[in-house]
Amino acid sequence: MKSFVLACSLLLSVAAHAADAPAPNAADSAFEAIYKAEWDWRMQQAPGWDEDSDNSGRKPSPKLADVGAQAQAKRLAYLDGVLEKLDAIDAGRLTAANKVNYAVYRPQIAHMAAEIRFRDYEMPFNADSAFWSDLGFMARATPRDAEGYRAYAARLRDVPRHFDQQIANMRAGLARGFSVPRAVLDGRDSSIAMVADLKDAESSGFYDPYRKMPATIPAAEQEALRADARAAIRDAVVPAFAGLLAFFRDEYVPKARTTLAAEAMPDGEAWYREQIRKYTTLDLSPDEIHAVGLQEVAAIRAEMDAIIGKLGFQGTSPDTRFADFLAFLRKDPRFYAKTPQDLLDRAAWISKRVDGEVGKVIGTLPRGRFAIVPVPPDIAPYWTAGRGGADTYWLNTYDLPSRPLYNLPALTLHESSPGHSLQQSLVREQGDTPDFRKEYISAYGEGWGLYSEWLGKEMGIYETPYEDFGRLTYAMWRACRLVIDTGVHHKGWTRDRALAYLRDNTALSEHEVTTEVDRYISWPGQALSYKLGELTIMRLRREAEAALGPMFDVRAFHDAVLAQGSVPLPVLESQIRAYIASAKSKAP
Fold this sequence. Notes:
This protein is mainly alpha-helical and about 600 residues long. It contains 22 helices and three strands. Strands 1-3-2 form a three-stranded mixed beta sheet, covered by helices on one side.
């Protein structure tokens, strides 16, 4: 709470005194020394190896992260020390730029400390992602030279140690009732079994970096590196996954909690409020968020009903028309791709159409480009429909009858351009911005992604009423999240009630309904960030349009929103209000 209030007061100061900002002083020097030292420490704690990690200039790590309880306690002590140093700074004396940096940085450190204080590391997976499947992204960050390959093989040999620590942490979580709910665990072990049951190291995804190695590495050395990898996979990775599989099936599932609500866990009410603050960057209560969700659901439903009326769809009766229309969408074969490649091709076509329009609504475009890649088969059954990063738009081609084409434009806009791929590429290209400012903030990033779906309508991307209905069903999906997340974790909703609510209000397939609800149950708070972030951006746009009138420039507005990367929503508000004031001051 302290960090939220402090951030708001600093932002008011930034807005009021942006024009007469003080010169850098001792407070700035002290603050910059703190965050630079902490960032160096942070990079030593958990090397990033996912598909979008920018590891340029960093020596490849031979170790996976130390996630043991002792290491976690040391991290917490360090972060608490950072917070003490930050609180000793006279933040009011910082320059305007560093006041914004401080308003971003202090909550970031506070949330990192809270994660350890609440012992989140004792529940290191959910129905959407897991530490064992995240290792697959390490394999996709292809080494550049022989040193990189040797470090990668060393990390593979470190998997047993890393997994043993994760298992010890999960046992501690089980003992105190802090676990993923039993209700969402069925089938979750399939991705573990795919590795545990491997008979041939070269058939493993962990071997992928060796299938095409740089020509700068001599052939004999290449073969030696391949032999090293095969041995690491055979002797370390496969046995570690086998041990994890036995633990998961024989111990974790039988002992997992039978409750659903986050608030039902130890210190659960405080923990859920922390999740809300972390993911939304707002200090809202579950009841306030639930009320916003109900209001948004009602408003979007009215828009959906209007499209159904324009299409002339009658249904069996007025009372069942909406449900009948959803049933029609879920069953009509015209709305579904026949092959995975068909789905990928359609997404690529949508993406190229966006390329021709995005420069009309955004002034500063990134140099970076992204690939469209199918979600790997080991995680596809429980992954969401797609996920976007600076380099990659992952599109889920698993179970094609659950991937309707009428939703694909909204999905592509959200995950690639002008959504996540564009926004994260801009962050990567921001040059002198402090590294901590490039960390992803869900409320901003997912809010921009959802706003990008709406922006597709302004760009003319939705070609049919069915695709526009798909846009609305995605907007409804995110509004339902506000209701379901708070319903499950605060109001005591059952899983069946949550499933029915999402099924009855959206045109999502049954597979998507199930995977999404299980995601909300096992990952409290994260799903709240999308709609609350989008509502903030939409409100700020209306504010800018009203204040600037004919001077409003949509490209300049979007550039202002995207200018400083992921920021908490209160920081975004201060940035846009400063942009509005500056634009008004330049009026003839």
